Every structure is written in C-alpha cells, then in structure tokens.
Amino acid sequence: MNPIRILLIGGGHAHIEVVRRFQSLFSGLAVEMMLLNPEPMAVYSGMIPGVVAGHYRTEDCLINLPALCECHGVTWNPGRFKALETDAQRVLLESGESLTFDMLSLDIGSVPATEPVQGAVHAVTVKPAHQFLRHWEAFLEQVDRTKPRTVSVVGGGVAGVELGLAMAHRIQTTQGERPWHWRLIAGGGLLEGHNPMVRRRAKQALDAAGIHCLTHVEVTAIQADGLQLADGQRLHSDFTLLCTSAVPPQSLSGCGLPLSDQGYIRVDEDLRVKSMHNVFAVGDIAHFPRPLPKAGVYAVRQGPVLAQNLLRLVRGEPLQPFHPQRRYLKLISLGEKKALASRGWLYCSGAWVWRWKNRIDVGFMEQYQR
Q: What pTM does this model have?
C-alpha cells in the first residue's frame, strides 16, 4: 500500500508549524509529507523591522527550510508552484514538472497591491520579504554616503509605520548628522482601525524621526527617481517602498478553486477549501467565512489546527474548527528599541513593550532554529 502523500505549497507561518509537528503527530502512520517552496529560507515577518533598524542580524529572522524539513522527516522541494489540477490531484511547477498528492494545503501568502499605480516596477515591495531585505541592503551598500537621500514609504498601515521608522533609525545611527529626507504617504489616514491614542503615539514617533506624513494622498505613478501624485504633484524619491493593501501573489483563477472577489481561496471554518474534501488553505491566501485581516498572527495560530486536521483526515475523524480572535494584540515597533501595544482600546508604549515583543519574537524563532 502506497503511503498517503501530503503536499504543502508555500513556507508560510502555518506550514512551518505543520512541518515541526509532523513526526510527533504522524509517527507510525503510512504518511509522507513534502514542502514546496522555491526559497530555502522563510522569513519571520515579526522581526523584519528589527532587522531593518539594525537590532537583529538578517539571519536572526530566517528559518532554514531544508534543515527544518530534514530534522522532522519532511521532504523539501525547491520548485515553484504554477497551477493546480484538482481533479487529477496534481500540482504543476514552473519547471514543467508535476507532483501528485492525496492531501494538499496552500500557504502562499499575499503581496502589496501594485495596480493601478503605473511604473510600480521602480518601487520595492515589502513582500516577498526576502526580496525586500535584499533590495534594502543593496541600496545601503550602493548609496553615496556623503549625500542625503530621499526615502518614501507608500502605505499608512502597521507595516508602513514600522518600516519607515526602522529605516530612518538605521540611517540616523549610521549616517551621523547628514540629514536624509523621509516621507510616508497614506491613501487614507494613519493606522486606520487603531484607537486614537495609538495613532497619536505613532504620529509622535514619525515626527520625532523626521518623517513627513502625507495622508489621504493617492500615488498614481512611480518613476526611478520619484513619485507622481493624483493632484499632479511630483516628488523626488531615491528609494520607494510599497506597503499597500494585500493581494494574492498570483492568479489562481485556473486552478478550480472557489475564490473570493479579490482572488483569495474560500475556506470553511475547519480550514478546508469549500466543497473540497482534501484541500486546505491557510494564512493570507485563505478567505475565512468571517473575513480576517491579513496578519501573521492568524497564520501562526492556524498552524496547530491545520496539523491536527490533516491527521484527523488521515484517520477519518471529524475535523476541528479554527476559532480566530475578533481582536488581537498588535505590538508595533517604533524604530528605536521602543514599541507600542494596541488591542481595541488598550494602549501602552515604551522600551518595556519592545522587550516584551523581543521575547515573543525570539521565542518563536527558537522553535525553528534549533
């Protein structure tokens, strides 16, 4: 009898937890698991601002997927997912190869929206994270350190605020007194959805870092050396980072999957794709019955549920639902070793919040870097 083949597409936060639990959960069962991810390193998003600010080394936020898989009895495949044939239970790779499966899960994340902005190719997107880190480090290496530069961040959410402050902190601590010019451009308000105290504290941090905030402003085009705004104004920019709203990383329209209007995969409460017995989706790519924010915390918490449900499906047992929190704690770093906490009307800020966040992040990474 052939073993049951479980194929995990994407090295997201949920899937790395499934890999970590594979041997302990599936020991003694005729099951084999493969993780398909083109990059050998997965990036933990929670530590990216700290890496950019210079508080961590790049390797501190990286998870070695081949090593993790080998440690837990999972096969790593560096292929790149292209398409899915659900009826044939087959995945097609960009190389032309194909992989068959008995059970499948997709955890391929999301990327910042680049449409309808013209010339978005001239900007750097915050995701894929490994590409952003490479672009930022290359910019720092190539830049003429005798001249001030202008850096623009497009997006007024948590990622835009954290990375704007992180980049400014890095430059201010390495460039001395030579001033750079910083701006954050938001299509709406700053940190919309957060309580007024959180938004006020974030604005204070941006002001203190010398980051000029333009809110309710639309960017219509990006050039190699600047930005075009909807009102016709053109702004110079040497480095432009897009932290805009999320979209799927690729079109899944030909894969036979039920999709939301935005192109995400519709799932039931047990994380199975709607109307499919053996296909799951987790993380940003999943469209939960009650739509969830595109935040890593949900992917992290879906990991244990997905692992259990794959095991239950193998055993022919009922699956368990995923119960997402309606509100979750957000720890927002502020460039220097300070952070603020936001959850509903809860607000607190200071160096102790950063130390709290640091313990959480380091503890998370220790699970996968041993």
A: 0.94
